[in-house]
Amino acid sequence: MAKDKITKTFGTIFIVSIIFVCLVLLDWIIKKYINLNKFKPVAEAVKIEENHRKTVKESAELKRLEGFRPLFYPRYFNKTKEFHSLYTKYSALPLGGLPNTKYYVCDEGYGMTTFISDKYGFWNSNRTYEKDIDIMIIGDSMSMNGCIQESKSFVGMLKKDFNVMNLSMGSNDPVHYASTAKTFIDKFKPKKIFLILTRGDFIDHYSQKTHIYKNLFFDNNFQYFDTTSSSKSYPDSLNKNLIKLLNESQKLTEKNINQFSKLGPAPKANFLKRFIIFLKTHSKLTYIQHIIFNKKYLPFGNELVINTIDKYCKSGNCEPHIFYIPSSNFWRPDSRQKKHVELLKSSLSEYKNINFHDLTEEFEGFERKGFSPFGSHLSFLGNKIVFEFMLKNLK
Range of 23's domain? Predict the structure, then answer.
């Protein structure tokens, strides 16, 4: 009898385990399916961009002759072996470029954009730090003035009436945003935070949980500023290892102009770590619950940046705003945009202090006019739409 009982117990455990494993795998399959972009690229848009890209190299060369330098971005350290090795060497990571440096950025039909970085490596004037910060903007290339000069961007228009500190960097993702928010909100105590989200921020992948910026800024609490100095002037207030990394990163960028595709891929997290993340993610059957019970969820990086901004705004008494700027279905068609907005709205309803603003309706009918002639960033008109929307909500 005792033997039969043990056999039945182990048999039950085995069957339950098999069912659980099947449910976990089904959850993973559902995730893969619902996170697929169902829209195909527009052939005309692809051809326009390819033809225009051929002319950009010459524009960049002319800017280098004028003394402007190519800008490196935080994503380089996530994506390439060569930049990742600098992270390993110095145990530091940048949030901006090299301070007080002449940079060129991009061209989507309005000419090659240029700027002189501030003392922290961002697209601001150093005069910004002489007064209290009215608005701190965190985002990717869409809020890094896109591919137009600042005076025509919504950021530049805001700067005419407010003291704006723009901490956006091209190709940043939500973990970069969270690292920036954690580093700068407490130090500069802005009155308002504007987090700018776009279609590219819907990243539902284990890489957000193994992100080197999460590891350095959140798991290891990296000190971006030199706490032994009271000065805010470069380079005294930046971590000494960070200063070394910034200089080497600039040299590496200039050494690899026009050949970034030849750089090696950054090392991935080991299999065991990825497997543990896989189990933790899917053991909750998040996606099955989403399909059957309409239970909402947010990708890890989105949740991290929202929680970070909420935390530091509460302690610093700032007013957080999240703006969702849609992409064009001509330049970057993405079926996941609507879902991303719905998930953000449902999740942010639990945060009483955060104001969420969706600009999707504002861009209806502006699939071409709202965006650049040769790319996916905002046009003059698109920037004006965003600025007027922001101004209305500020008032």
Answer: 1-34
